[in-house]
Amino acid sequence: MPVDGDDAVWGSAMAPVTIVVFTDLECPFCAQNHATLVAMKRRYGEERLRVVVKHLPLAMHPQAPAAARVTQAVLASAGPQKAFAFLDLAYARPDAVSSGRFPELVREVGLDPESVLAHAEDSATADAVLADVELAQRLGVTGVPHLRVNGRPFTGVQTEDTLRAAIDEELRATAELARNGVRSSEIYALRVAANLARPTALHVP
Fold first, then answer.
1. Beta strand 8-10 with 49-55: parallel, antiparallel or unpaired?
2. Residue extents of the structural domains in the chain
3. For the chain, where are the E strands, in sequence order?
4. What string of DSSP letters covers 84-141?
5. Which is the most buried residue in 17, 113, 117, 152, by most CB within 10 A?
6. pLDDT at position 204, please?
7. Would the pLDDT of 201 be above 70?
8. Contact present, 29 and 59 (Cβ < 8 Å)
9. In sequence order, what are the beta bridge partners of 146?
10. CA-to-CA separations, 94 to 65, 133, 164, 202, in angstroms, rounded
């Protein structure tokens, strides 16, 4: 499960557990799932958990592609901390997203709307969103939110209990690899490979 240079990333690159989330900023279920991820960030901290955001704007949400591009523009302009602040605000303000009031949201996170929105129209920004969509297609992801916990797939809104159980399982597995002498830089790839071999994902309607 690739983590790219143009992804919004929270947490240490050496964290033993990585959650990659495919999301749509106009999706109410993604907003619910984002709140659960925020709780996981607080619980586990940056040294044990890394959260990576990838975009999958759905056709049913007319403002979702623009919201994804604006998020990428915030990331490129001001880094991951501001990008996650923008995500927090956008999910808390669905009315602003659905009505396309992106200048208002950008201003509220302390950035210049004119500059960020101009960047959102760059071809590089569009290409970054498209790369996420193409990755989702290759993985067979058709709905959001969709998460990969060290590669293990979960589709739909996840409860805190479900994510805690998955994260704790991964922490035990990665600790065992470390005890066996596996380098920390290799653990993520090994766990992704193991989890991709698991037979089923958890689907929540």
1. antiparallel
2. 8-203
3. 8-10, 17-23, 49-55, 146-149, 152-155, 202-203
4. HHHHHHHHH-HHHHHTT-HHHHHHHTTS-HHHHHHHHTSHHHHHHHHHHHHHHHHHT-
5. 17
6. 41
7. no
8. no
9. 22, 155
10. 14, 22, 27, 27
Residues 6 or more apart from 181 whose CB is under 8 A from it?
none
User: How many Å apart are CA 104 and CA 50, to the nearest integer?
Assistant: 29
185 CB burial (10 A radius; 0-12, 13-18, 19+) = exposed
In this predicted structure, what is the pLDDT of residue 200? 57
**pLDDT of 112-143, one tens digit each?**
999 999 999 999 999 999 999 999 999 999 89
d(CA 4, CA 128): 9
CATH H-level, domain 8-203: superfamily = Glutaredoxin (3.40.30.10)
> Do residues 92 and 45 make contact, with C-beta atoms less than 8 angstroms apart?
no
In our burial notation (b when 16+ CB lie closer than 10 A, e otherwise), range 4-16 reads eebbbbbbeeebb
Q: What is the pLDDT of residue 198?
A: 78
Pairing of strands 202-203, 152-155: parallel
Residue type, 135: L
